[in-house]
Design brief:
single chain; mainly alpha; globular
Length: about 150
């Protein structure tokens, strides 16, 4: 029996489900609305669909890496590290209302996503390429986080 589809499904459920659960428990409230934001801050409705799509991609990449010889590699460790940083950001920023701690977390996320791309490039170019939009969004989110710190 081929369990690849099950592994993909489990990774997508883990990542998408975890992201949705964390998002539902750390909603932007009045505190966030009261912050000064940069001119490039997108409307709030943009974040949920973008993150949902990215979470599916993150799950697919995790499953690809898990099913490959890279399972015990630095790539898999970086994949898990980025997930920890990713899931820690919203509770720090929205839950604790602490943009500075969130900035430290997002920098860890940025390093782990970029590191994953670098170490995966030769062994699984598809996984590395799939993480490029994620890297671009995390760079954008890092700029947003930094701008909110600077403006507040």
């Amino acid at each position: 029996m081929n369990n690849k589809p099950l592994v993909y499904l489990l990774f997508i459920i883990l990542v998408l489900g975890g992201g949705l659960l964390i998002g539902a428990n750390n909603v932007p409230g009045g505190w966030y609305q009261s912050l000064a934001k940069p001119s490039f801050n997108p409307p709030n409705w943009v974040f949920a669909p973008v993150w949902s799509l990215l979470y599916v991609i993150i799950g697919v990449v995790g499953a690809r890496t898990w099913l490959s010889p890279l399972r015990r590699s630095i790539a898999m460790r970086l994949w898990f590290a980025q997930l920890v940083f990713n899931f820690a950001w919203s509770p720090a920023f929205f839950g604790l209302q602490d943009p500075l701690s969130a900035m430290i977390i997002i920098l860890g996320l940025l390093v782990s996503v970029a590191g994953f791309i670098i170490v995966s490039w030769r062994q699984d170019r598809t996984a590395a390429l799939l993480f490029l939009p994620y890297l671009a969004w995390v760079l954008f989110a890092t700029a947003l986080n930094a701008a909110i710190i600077a403006l507040n």
